[in-house]
Structures are given as structure tokens and as C-alpha cells.
Amino acid sequence: MYAFRKWMTVAAAGAFAFGIGYAHAAENKSAPDAPPVVTTDQVQQVDDNDPFEGSNRFFFNVNQALDKALLRPVAIAYHDVLPDFARDGVRNFLNNLNSPVIFANDLLQGEGDRAGTTMVRFGINTTIGVAGLFDVASDLGYPYHDEDFGQTLAVWGVNDGPYFYFLVLGPSSARDFTGFVVDRGLDPLTYVGWGDDYEWVPITRAVVNVIDLRSRNIETLDEIERTSVDYYASIRSLYRQSRADAIRNGKPSTDLPDFDNGGGVTTSPIN
Amino acid sequence: MSLRMFGRLTLVALVSAFAWCSATPVALASQDAEAFTQKVINQGLAILRDGGSSKNSRFHDFIFKYADASKAAMFTLGPYRRGANKADLDAFVNAYREFQFALYARSLEKYKDKSLKVTGSIDNKPGDVTVNTVVQDPNGSTDKGLRVSFRMSGSDGSYKFTDVQIEGAWISQSQLEQFRSILGRNGGNIGELTQEIENRTEHMND
Fold it and tell me: Which residue from B134, B153, B177 is facing A233, i.e. has the nearest CB?
């Protein structure tokens, strides 16, 4: 039970990092066929999928307060104290540590080429890249890409389920939270320290990951907040769109709304 | 060559020519939209780079000339636009237009020292094109460049921008969710939403 609690602690910290880092870029791919055009009502079916909006908004406000009081100031200090090359080294190191999870999900999605890229990247960056501090592999034509079990479930045809905004964890969905827990189980580092004196390793990794991701999104999140009339709804939409983009591996979306149909309104009047 | 063979070749040539003619307008439409996007974005960045006292008004005119704020505004209202009176809708569109201007001005100001490189386009349907670009560093590198896409309506060198996508997220879809959330809480009162948008625009311009 102790081990499970520790795992969940690491999972929670990692999910929070994931939540604030939702804007992370996915690998870009070339354009496929022209996408079909859908209506506003189809777009809005996604919007309706927030049955716990009341509690979600409550936890969103709590997290906002925690962020302003603690995480954001720490992230700013981290950003100001460490030079760019040092922060890049930290990010490269953390990305490299996550390679086993990415590799497993590449395989589970049947993406042999991407799995190969992940494996080669891990080999090059762990050795020539000095334990992953330098991303030599990208310079050699093996760019970084991200994968997780939430994306794998989506590729397998699992719908995202209701939207959740968790305390500390941040934005998620039933599918993504399930994927997140499975990913922690796939991660070898999760098991480091269980029952011995190295339990600080996965916890430190999770904390540094949170701070580093937050430091990379200070301006972006400030700007989103400043330009939103409803910050909660804005984050919810951007989270969903960002996840959909990651699932498509950066390919163009296939469900564009029909502007020429006035938004494609087809349901009965609301007034 | 026998007459029969000649006839068959002629038929194949005619069918190929017909297929080429049918396909060409779509391909040209995308190339046309790509060239238009590159030209207009360069113009916009040049205005921002030039600076000067008239920069704001020039950029304002620029955005109003090339962005179809009305179409985007109607979309972001979703089902709530039905049954709304014309005065409320007009006021909303005007407020939305200024909101869009403030948003684009803020966003593009950060990239004025960079450039956008067109990477391709998709014909969504006739008269509806998405042009994909990537932000380029001053040294020409696009290694870690932001992906930005522009959705446009129009044809033959005359287009209006209807939406912008940054790293896979469309602005209009985010606004649709935000506005719907506000309208859902206030009983579909478009006037109140317009007021909120005006307040936010003021805040953005502070």
C-alpha cells in the first residue's frame, strides 16, 4: 500500500506537469487528404462533455491560487537563475528519461518507425549526449516526439470520456487519466527506490518536471489568461484541442466546423 | 500505327486532359491561397516592424481589410445567434472585431522579428482553404518553429482570414467554448457577452 501511495504521489505530480504543459508541440507531419467540414453543433457536443463543471471550476480556482502563490514564483526564479543551456539540458535529460514510456506507446500504436526513432534517440542521447543532457539525436535527424497511453487508447478507438479538472493534477479526461496511471506503471523509474533509500529519485524527477514545464509556459499561460473571457473554458478547449493534435501526431484536423453555414446551426432554437 | 490504335490513344489523351483540367483549379486554388497568405503576412509583419506613430491605425486597417470578423463572430455564437435581434448581433460583431484586432496585434507583435514560412495548404471545400505555416527564426531556422495555420474563404487572389490555428488549437473553437459557457450562465444574453468582450478588449489594450 505504501508503494501504491508513493506511485500515486509521483503520478499526481507528473499529471500536474502534464496539465500545465499541454501546449507542448507535437511532431509535425505532412498534410493528408482534405478534411471533411462539420457543423458547430458537432463541435459543441464536445463542449457538453463536462458533467462535473461545478467541481471542476472549483478545483481550477484552487489550482490557480496554488499556482500564483507557489508554482509560478518558483518557475520564474528557476527561469531567471538558470541560463538557457542549463534549462535545455534539464529538459533533454527529462525527455530522455521518459523514452521507455514513449517507446512502449509507439509500439502499442503500431508505429514501428517512430518506435525506432525513439530507440535510436535513447541510445545516442544516453551515450554521446552525456546521459541525455544534450539532444544530439535531433541534430542527427531523429527529432523528439511524445506519446502516452492516453494517446494509445485514442488510437485504439477509445473516446475521451468526461472532462475532469483535478486538484493539483490539472485538466484531464477519463481516458487521459487512465492513460496517465498506466504510463506510470510502464515507466521503469517509477519503481526506483521502492523499499530502499532512493525513493527521492522519482519524486525529484516529477517535481523538476513540473517546475521546468511551468517555466516554459509562463508567458503562454499569462497570455491565454489575459485574452480569455472565460479562462476555465479556454483551458478546457485548448487542452482538448492540444490532445487531439497530439493524437493526430500534428497532422491537420479532420473535423473543421462549417463557417459558411453560420456555424452549422441545425438544432431547435434555444430562446 | 493503326487507326484503331490512334483512336484509343486519342481517347486516353482526351480523358487525361479532362482529368487534368478538372483537378487543376483545386491545386491552383491552394497555390493561390498560399501565395496570398505569404504576401499578406509579410505585409502585416512589415507594418509592425516599421513602428511609427501611425502603426496602430495602419495595423487596425490591415486586420479589418483581411479578416472576416463577421463570419467568425457568428460562428462563435453557435446556436445562440438564432432568435437574437439584429441590434444585439451588430453590437456583438463590432465588439468581436475589436477583440480580434487586439488579440492579433498582441500575438503578432511578439513575432515581428521573425517570419512565417508557408509549408502547404488544404482545400477544405470550394472557397475554403487552410494554409499551413511555420514560424521562422531570423536566421531561417524552423527547427523549433511554432506551427500556425490560417483558414481562409475566397478564391482567385481574393481571400479573407476566418480563423487561426496555433500548435493545433483553433482560436474560434476556443472562443466558441468560452462564449457558450458565458451565454449558458446568463440565459443567452448576447448583450452581456458583448459587454464582457468589450471589457476584455480594454484589459488587453492596457
Answer: B177
Q: Are B178 and A229 in contact (CB under 8 A)?
A: yes
Query: In the Cβ-directed half-sphere of B142, how many Cα atoms lie within 13 Å?
Result: 14
Which pTM was predicted?
0.82
Domain span including residue A194? 2-78+144-247
Q: A28 vs B134: CB contact, 8 Å cut-off?
A: yes
pLDDT (tens digit, 9 = 90+) per residue, B27-51?
455 889 999 999 999 998 888 888 7
Residue A231 to residue A219: CA distance in whole angstroms: 15
CATH topology of domain B31-205: Nuclear Transport Factor 2; Chain: A, (3.10.450)
Helix axes B171-185, A231-247, angle to 10 degrees: 140
The number of angstroms, rounded, from the C-alpha of B53 to the middle of its chain's C-alpha atoms is 27
The CA distance from B137 to the nearest CA of chain A, in Å, is: 17
Q: How far is A6 from chain B (nearest CA, A)?
A: 34
Q: Where are the domains of chain B?
A: 31-205
The reply to whether residue A37 touches residue B124, judged by beta carbons under 8 angstroms, is yes
Nearest to B173 among A229, A232, A237 (CB): A237
How many residues are given for chain A? 271
Split at pLDDT 50, 70, 90, the class of B2 is low
Contact A248 B168 (CB under 8 A): yes
Residue A262 maps to a domain:
no
In this predicted complex, what is the ipTM? 0.83
